[in-house]
């Protein structure tokens, strides 16, 4: 098959990071952001062939986004440049040492105008895995349609479909999300959610066991529950398996969930068993939280064991 | 009269300045920008009471804008916070040493949603001078209506109305601008334009003399033509008067026109004759181009003579 | 009453912050500092009308200080510009991760030359609360007289007087401080002190209970004891009430005491009961320690609950 | 043909740029550098398919170099990672406003270990143009052999070979360079040299006319002489053609010659006549000198006319 | 005696520190580094006369290194400038919050070309203490010979010789190191090692007690075992003494071992007993880890008690 | 003679440089400043033995100053640390591209408290040249006495005394300066002044020829008149000699006069004739103006010819 190992699509954003309160007016550093781009980079760093599709503004900021994706070796052949819409932006403010706050300016952006036709060439090329998130359907009616179409098309073609719920409360309500994501999950083989997101792909307020049972019954083969510093849980037909988080000093949790998913999918592409896939998932999550940036500190393949048996403050020389 | 010396209104923007190409991803520094805000600050620095009105987003970026205006002593009592629309943004890229490029992301912004009702309280409070620019009518139908209403209301109340043409080709065409600005100029006592903007308040392609004659005939008492490094010309019923630019090293021309206008209006408020008003206009213009930023280097009153009889490289100590 | 909610006075300093050892010569960032200015900003951010009085140098640095106060919405109408004295400075060096060191250059500064006449207009305008600290009397004989006069005048006019002991060992000894602050406390309704400062407004070495009893007996209605990461205690005629600190990651404790006081006074102005005042006090203290800067991270009113029920690393989006 | 439009090879360096004297210890910013990489990027920005070959260290710095090349869309498929040799470095110090100084640490680097075998796959894939510089043969005996082999192989295959003399006096003497580069020029269709380099591909000290005549006689079809701010001259069988430099403010001349060459080759690939090729050459040179960085300010295709008919200080908005 | 209190020699490196991943291309800050230079600075800061010898490149980077040593008051009279070899470099990357990674580019450097003749004048001048590390013998055969000659010469002259094992796994293997360092330790009075380095001066894999016994039997009078956050142990003929680490927040452990050694040697020079020497050793180690940089945060003599009885977040003012 | 080649004394200041207006609150970078320190560094860079004497605060800022002087190889053995007075400060603001403004905070500083006793040891050690400036007598009565005593003592001992008038209008008036400096010049062999300072060591308003004649008559052997970008003039008993400035792009003129003086004195110490001394003087002046900083860009001896026959934009590689 000539397609990439992983195909993902969604909105790539320019994240403008502020070291202190935005109102103080300090310098902002631009970064590529977006859950799907994070996953693509996570896989590309490990040597997998990853492709990203979507709409990107045809201006300097859009070019910035593509430069970053290309720098990381992500295939952007199927990205569509949109000459009439601006780049989606987010301001990421470190409000306190423990609390990060996001301000979106993405309404009407190029990325939100995604449509089915934008994805046709990429889907036609095929891929071993298709990854999508619950953010895309929140962007516009067209993006919602495109996400559904892509999931269904890929599933029908035998591609493994992975859905990360990724609820964004500033984009839509939990009820609105549930109404869209629950049917979408029906196309997925792998569903990823943090523990408070699981009932967005099932009955509101149901407990984890009930929700997982329902998903497995609907054809999902693996449900991954992200639990932050406490690790993760995987549910399959064979039951439940837990994985502890790696003991690292967390300095920036943004992107950790995407790193986790990338690690899991990398393990899948490498043919690892569930324990191995989970191990890689929590390893990538650990790299993500142990450094600043959404994806900048993710490991190359030769670095996968770097966090094993280290002491705080170690120096490699 | 309890109102301020100057009232102005329009869109205050967050200008994100990049020291190099935007695509390279270097740090961006946020600045308050906007032609009308620049004029208000220019006057406040000289000790005049200046007020700014308009809509500003009710988020961190809007608060940043108000912090800057307040820091400069501009009265923001009549600014309306808009909880549902984002801040208008511009990316300002130093593309080459000689060429600056602006990327706007202001469509649908809080500032563009300006309406007549937003301006009623400020107009009711009165002012000696009302300043507006040709940017505001380009933002939205509502803003266009608000600008016209304010100009007419102020003129009727005997307030001196100043209009700076300020054509923004990324917002509208010359024809669209002319259709709106020509009638608007009819309410103005002072019209300011760069030499290539003058036919936006008159017949397309007409020569300067014809255009000025037409404006004076329509009740404009002073027409100011900005000519960059070559200085400026003023036309009144008494004829034409030229003013040379001050000989300074220009490092950033953004904001120079607004500084010029602020200097002129300051001279008016101080009761200077035309020569004195022009002298102050080109002095403020010189301060603007001699330092970085749209308004950051404008002079306080005790600094007005700072650029006189100086040699390059002088140190005051 | 036309006066502000809070009037405070004292020395506003330019704090030059160094990220590492001063001797290494790294860049310094200027900040507005001063315990009283911190309190004024804390209240202004919450929507109270706060005014600051005092002497500020009539140069670029003094203008910097006023720009910051105005940016935060603090009324500086009654600030006196001093053309003959420089700005007070402090160098703030992060000596180690846990230890911050201050180097003052404030002897002979504009702020230290404060006198009774400087405060008359502000006192005449009235206020609901007058806040002063034990720093002002340490600056000069004139400042000492002015502090005493203001406290007495305000108390006589029925204004609630709040005194924060704020001992600065680099300015005067504990004995010298005690001799001045003990009588000053007699004009106060609210006395704020850290636990090792309490005997500067009473008998040297006495225990907390004895000292509090003495203060209450002398007419103080509330004694607030700041205990850093362990929270705070309030004593009134009704007895003692403890408040725990909010569980946040502390990165910069400078300004925490002032934030605490601002929170308490905000609660007072809002008519909260003692529990509510203390809750707001520790909340503002938490914001102060959870971010860098003396006051930069203090909350706006809509942010007051931001630290409640958060997990480390949370992202709001 | 499946090969790229341009193939080039050589050493990609990490350039550590210092804003002031190196001895003062200010921050250094890493940049991708290297004459051949500059040419590849110049072409890729204009939409040509450009490929870079060579050896790059298999460490963090080598990865940095590849990230930059990929970001710019340069094909690095045929780059060989060298696990045993470090990245070549250069320190670039702005010694005075007019004078830049380079300190190389490239002896024994991965790039200098280039050999014929490293280039075989890239040459086998073919290309419309092969570009090489006189730097590569200065790096090592192996690199010298590789350069000669590649030029000869490509010429034989009918690929247009372009040689830029690019003398580096810190790497070898003029005599040593001449002995190697003169025969190498015999394989080239296009020879590029600054006016003081021309006699490195001919008789020492000969005048320009004699040298050009000799080159044309040896089969070179075009000789391009770079003359800095005075423009350039092209010699062909049809005689001589001059091109003036574009009038821009020069802030950084590093990389200007490579930009010139990239512009010329882009014109060739687009099928322009000599005048058009020269026009594009001086246009790219102007972009290079008008901004900071070796290649960072080079134009995309839609920017090619950006410097035409501009005034200093223009703002596009 | 006219010689310094301490003489040390070795390679001074330019350490280029990166705040994030090197591949991301952020700014690098140059620092003087090198275990021996760290020790010299540690002693000079405490008022001891410290001298550094070795070879340093005769270029801008070498001058940078000497500027730093001189700034700290280290005598560099006997440093030899090497006109033909470059400065040794290291890139120091903060890979994660807990893990620092070093990339050396020091092969063939000026410092690695150290020879016996370079050290003759410094040894002839004499010193109370000679300090050397196990890094120098790893640099080259000449440096190995020089280290051995210096240790032997000094020991014979009655100078106290201190050897810090300082194994660098990127420079040589444990077996290679052991073969060289074991005989070298025979010249030392004081041997310093981290707990996993101790068997590099004795039998591979032997336990601590056995190894210490062996060293004492061979004439070493004191063996110091560094145990990071757990403190240190000293062994002498009188038995074993433990010292706990000071309770500080560790932000950068690079240089901590050198600081420890400097503290111990300072105590020796001041005539302190073993407990006092250890106390000073762990004190300097605490300063090193509590701030950023290899040596930048080491204490002056008047600061030695600064970390005693402090609370996290204390401010001295 | 065991003394240094040059002895100078005066106040070393911490100069806090701002890239933009001080009121905007941007970062400040600390630099060592002071006319005499600049001269000492200029000579030390050229390999002369230079010593600086004076009082320096015994705090972090004083230590910063000494670190800088030591880094440059200036002997600070005779500097006195003052435990009771702060460091002298200056804020250096780039007000416009052409105009720099200084704000002093040096009243009561350690440096201003200089007295005769502080200088005795340094004078006793002797030197070939004693350099002093007209700034020192402006600092305090004690400093005035010390300057006079030192000039007289040195002259009597046969040391060449050099006086640079260096009028600082923010410290004293022209009349006050003249009254002190005119007699002081009587001890000098070399008097340096800019063309508008010359009548501060003679009759007010007298022309250059008259003033020079008077100085020569009073025993001054050489009068040097600095004329900025127009070069300099030297007057001796043999008449007048002019030297043109080197053609460089001037970016920062601060320190240029001191560099000029250092160059002249270096030529004197090297035994050059007047033409050679002037040539070196204008060469150092050119280095000073061609880069940022008071002394940071001064040349080492091997760089003296670096500015000869260069073109703007040259790169040395």
UniProtKB/TrEMBL annotation, chains A, B, C, D, E, F:
Molecular function terms from GO: ATP binding; kinase activity
SUPFAM superfamilies: Ribokinase-like
One Pfam family from the record: PfkB
Boundaries of every Carbohydrate kinase PfkB domain copy: 21-298
UniProt-listed InterPro entries: Carboh/pur_kinase_PfkB_CS (IPR002173), PfkB_Carbo_kinase (IPR050306), PfkB_dom (IPR011611), Ribokinase-like (IPR029056)
Signal peptide span: none
Keywords for this protein: ATP-binding, Kinase, Nucleotide-binding, Transferase
Family from the record: Belongs to the carbohydrate kinase PfkB family.
Descriptive protein name: Sugar kinase
